Structure prediction request, 552 residues.
Amino acid sequence: MYVRIVCLLAVFTVSPMGLATSSAQTQSPSEYVYKVEFLHKVAPFVEWPEGALGASTAPLVLCGLGDDPFGPALDTVEGRTAKGRTIEVRRFDGLDGLDECHILFISSSERERLADVMEFLGSSSVLTVGETEDFAQRGGIINLSITRNRLEFEVNLGAGNRAGLQLSSQLLSLATRIVRDGR
Amino acid sequence: MVRCSRSAWVGTRLLHRCLRPRATILRRGVVAGFAVSILFIGSGTAALAQDLTDLSLQELLERDVLSVNVLGTHTHLAGERMIGYKLMFMRMDGNRDGTDGISDDDVLAGFPVTPTNMDMAMHMVEVMYAPSNDLTLMAMVPFVSLSMDHLTRTGVRFTTDSRGIGDITLAGLYTLFGDVGTGRHRLLLNAGVTVPTGSIDERGDTPAGQNLKLPYPMQVGSGTLDLLPGLTYLGESETWAWMLEGKPVVRLGENDNAYTLGQQFHFDGWGARKVTDWASLSAQLSGHVWRDIDGADPDLNPNMVPTADPDLRGGERVDLLFALNAYAASGTLDGVRAAVEVGFPVYQSLDGPQLETDLRVNVVLNWTF
Prediction:
């Protein structure tokens, strides 16, 4: 009799010891919420050339190019501050106006015309951020990926230098890889 | 024949003793326990949206992107590896012909020997690797332990046992539709094979003689290369996950003992509810259809015992199972998942006389890293 009771209790007993006891949450952000947060949090680790950000009261312009995978997530950074400036969000389908951006996220939908985008930007002081496998090797400055359920990024230091941007050593230490053009 | 370690065998016998009480009592306890769990655990979970804005860049990079992992993603994310252990226990007690239970005396009217009950324990070691978000590869190695009690017309009771490595499974899960990172609905293609590494020549001692070939249910393997195709639909919301799955087992050719186990088809419907950040409850309806054996082992006498008759091996069954699942998203046990599942048939019809299933217990422990 007692063996049966013990067995029944054992079936529904799970000890919480050692398991996560963080406060309950009912919603998990998608990967694009993490990528939006990265776009906001990376700004303090980047130095733009003198005058590239405009007057001290001018906004820090964060742009998205191509099919918008963020949905409303991108708007959550609108009005927040980075580098002492208010963030302004803009969305683009074409190239015109891209050189006014300070941080430009290039969607995976633009993979086929990435070369055109990079040629248009030239040496503009735009921090280009992408999410395709060869983005950094093709001249993008930072490429984001999700590996083993964690957000990771790689950096093309040469592309950053050509854009006149100085990436802090602390940022580079967090990168999973430093790549060069074509490699 | 490769034998299980003695510790695994001892552990299995302890489980047999724990679950030997009549399965009816356990069934009622399972349903009552599940209902109570739903009432007390499922009723009050605070909903606090996690705010990433307070995190530093380094902290952001150290967080799991998908945090609803207690519901499981079924597949794994790019670069993830998983190693795990699964114990599957099944208790079969009494015989059935069609949907009717029949007594030992009824069986002995047609056969000199009848099986009375059987315990099956499968210890499974699993490894998985996901080269991408769309593809998960897996290998499963089972260690099978079988024990069957018998009764003869003359009142003699005896037990036969067999154990060893079963048929190894190699499989892949490929996402045909949907995205594990952003999608709520996914369609997966299952593609696998079982390699005939399990023995089909298990022998044992019976009142009829020593070292005799054991009947079909006591063999550890199939002896054939089998295909495991299938389709799985997965759906997920913030607190619920659900699945529909259909998987046949397609036997290829004939084994070295001149028979082929019956073709099988399995279909499952499963639903889970997250009740805390680290625990979920699930329920599953699991259906099975399996055919009689094609051919016959020349070493077996089909007139001696029903389990040696290849035409009395088919059947169909629907099981209802309940599970409690736990997952550690951080801390010392980061990536560890544990689950206990208990279930019983709600319908079964057998080409009898054939032992009927009374109870199923599954225990899972794995680590994703």
